[in-house]
Amino acid sequence: xxxxxxxxxxxxxxxxxxxxxxxxxxxxxxxxxxxxxxxxxxxxxxxxxxxxxxxxxxxxxxxxxxxxxxxxxxxxxxxxxxxxxxxxxxxxxxxxxxxxxx
Length: 102
Description:
Elements: H1 4-27, H2 38-73, H3 88-93
């Protein structure tokens, strides 16, 4: 079992990452408007597609973080669905990890 100090440290890292990601999602929302020329419109569409992909990745990561925070509340953090303890090194690399790497 992981120590409470370790779990508290991971919780703080998860919360900090979530705050950062929420800020990025807000900053990159909306459709860019560079002008009315064909070239500007093409750039707007390309940038919007990139922003949408980024926002999707940010949303998925926030979901992973929320699940990890929920596991902390339920006192099941750092344990796989199969009941295997996730090593501290893996959780330090990815505090929202849910699997063990062989």
